[in-house]
Design a protein that fits this description.
27% strand, alpha+beta, four-stranded antiparallel sheet
């Protein structure tokens, strides 16, 4: 397949070069009807350009002497005679082409409009460069994908592994905080229902004892009553000592059911007392299940009490509803 261009209107056509025979073929433009000769690029010899018609000068006769014998010679044909015969042949072919229908270029060619955009060479270059552009765009896509993968690995995967496997408690706290703002479907099924309002404190009293290690200590005692219609557990009571200006001078929190004798109150150190009062289940697991209307004693001890204490207050700060199984 080759590109043929009309000599007059410059229209370009696609032509099957297999139809070319000899030195070339005469063609007629289907656009402007101009007839022109298309050379065969595969021919060994190209058709010479017709030379301008020049009238040959008159040949002078040279006298020949009778005595001398002139040998027979081949007729001499000048270059001008060749040109003249070539022009006659061309004219005969052209006249014959006018009488017989010249195969129009439309039969073997597809007409193309004059190129307004890039030329044929530019189109070939664009087609040649297109795979390279696709290849470069593909490399850019994989590079962006690698960057995104590394970002996800560093920002999400590695911290998640650290928080949920190395520090699981921290991971649980983070999930709970995120779940407050975005519903992740995370539900803490083990979270008990807090029912501090269902506990009533009564029979509250206080006294001062002398501890052999700590000196004078304040002991606050009372009873917690379950006023709910269901069992509860882990009742916690908080005591505060305040001065005349309602400034809190000290506070202690203890779980109900942890009771010690007066002998222990006078003999145990501060660390031992705090350890006994910090058991959530209470003595003999008495704080694990308090039935409705059930009662459980509590005790709070203040040691190393500062001066200026005017009054003592107590209140319930913890109570959990038992889930039915």
């Amino acid at each position: 397949m080759m590109i043929v261009q009309c000599r007059q209107c410059r229209t370009k056509f696609r032509f099957d070069d297999a139809q070319l025979e000899g030195d070339g073929i005469w063609m007629r433009c289907s656009r402007c009807q101009h007839v022109f000769f298309q050379d065969n690029p595969h021919a060994v010899k190209s058709v010479p350009e017709p030379a301008p018609l020049i009238q040959p000068p008159p040949v002078k006769a040279v006298p020949v002497q009778k005595e001398e014998a002139v040998p027979d010679a081949a007729p001499v044909v000048s270059g001008d005679d060749d040109v003249a015969r070539f022009i006659d042949d061309v004219m005969k072919v052209q006249s014959t082409a006018d009488e017989q229908p010249v195969p129009e270029i439309e039969k073997g060619l597809k007409e193309e409009k004059p190129a307004e955009g890039p030329s044929i060479a530019d189109e070939l270059l664009l087609e040649k460069d297109e795979p390279q552009e696709k290849k470069s765009s593909g490399r850019g896509f994989w590079r962006v994908l690698k960057i995104v993968a590394w970002a996800v690995l560093v920002i999400i995967v590695i911290p998640a592994v650290i928080y949920f496997f190395v520090l699981p408690q921290t991971g649980d706290r983070i999930l709970k905080v995120i779940n407050r703002y975005v519903d992740l479907g995370f539900r803490d099924t083990d979270q008990p229902e807090i029912v501090t309002g269902q506990v009533k404190l009564q029979d509250i009293r206080q006294r001062i004892l002398n501890n052999n290690i700590l000196g004078p200590i304040r002991v606050v005692e009372g009873v917690a009553v379950n006023q709910a219609d269901y069992p509860i557990s882990r009742i916690a009571v908080k005591g505060e000592i305040v001065d005349a200006y309602a400034v809190v001078l000290g506070e202690r929190t203890t779980y109900a059911g942890n009771i010690v004798t007066d002998e222990e109150l006078t003999m145990l150190s501060e660390e031992e007392l705090l350890k006994k009062f910090s058991r959530p289940e209470g003595g003999n697991n008495s704080n694990d299940k308090i039935m409705p209307k059930g009662m459980i004693p509590f005790m709070i001890v203040f040691s190393r009490e500062p001066a200026g204490v005017i009054k003592t207050t107590v209140r319930t700060v913890g109570a959990e509803r038992l889930l039915s199984h």
